Predict the structure of Hcy-binding domain-containing protein.
Amino acid sequence: MELGIVETSSTLMTDFLQKCGGYAVVDGGFATELERHGADLNDPLWSAKCLFSSPHLVRKLLFSTAFLSCWSMTEYSCLIRQVHLDYLHAGASIIITASYQVFLIFIIQLYYTSLSEEEAELLLRRSVEIACEAREIYFDKCTEGSSDYIESGNISRRPVLVAASIGSYGAYLADGSDGKYGDAVTLKTLKDFHRRRLQILAKSGADLIAFETIPNKLEAKAYAELLEEEETNIPAWFSFNSKDGINVVSGDSILECASIADSCKRAVAVGINCTPPRFIHGLVLSIQKATSKPIVIYPNSGETYNAGLKQWTKSSGVVVDEDFVSYIGKWREAGASLFGGCCRTTPNTIRAISRVLSKCP
Ligand SMILES: [Zn+2]
């Protein structure tokens, strides 16, 4: 049985890419889109994907008692589902759940006792359900007669995968340590921290796990070991974070990090996210030296988050959507096959990526 699961896992991404024509589009940033649809981004959960929220904000959130019922019931669910739908309509074939944000609930649950473990786990599962609901709605719309989806009289719809996001321990630390966790944080610390979340998300109905914004090789190793120990029934991708285009954010070698993912049987793609576009090409070339697994890249807009000002600021590396997509051909030539966007990218970015890729030979 075990062998069967691993075999199915290992071919999920290659089979998917084959069905998609050799490359696939991943979705884009979440926070900006939620804001556009009316979410209040002062709530730290929404901005958590890139902004490591501070403990006092978490405490503030604790007293926002309306939060849990909103999230699990109606308003926020609708907003999140709408953002997933926007990305599907923009051409994304992989949508990533909002569970990166939800994991902050676990911090609250751990340090304050106002939420039960069951309630916290419910929120995680709900993040996957919402993405799956969006996929169903999208498929229903596609089959409602749009000629775009009818080929030779048959309904042709591209496959869509739901990836359950797991964020790093660094986001929990919220201390700007850039993945330098120190000697006190061991492999065991990291495995203990991530185990329950992985168990829940692996059985949530998602197609794969997206380990995102991994800052160091210790955390990559923890994920690889957890996947094996838990005999996880769905595969995962390992996506690292870099600030200099040479190493991952902690200073560990991207080659070593990618090698850890490469030797993990349940890893089906390796890549980079939340990193400025100008660094991606070199990183893809490095990753290619360590693995023949598909390479996933979803850079941010190139803007920098200023924690002091609590806002995104433009830097010399900022690219508009047209410029962002001008990199795509180069990234594809270098060996990447899954393309999307992270913080501050929008459905317009994803639409532009889809358009460029559809013209690639
Ligand atoms: Zn990001």
User: Anything to note?
Assistant: The CA atoms of residues 135 and 278 lie 32 Å apart. The radius of gyration is 19 Å. The chain has one domain: 2-359.
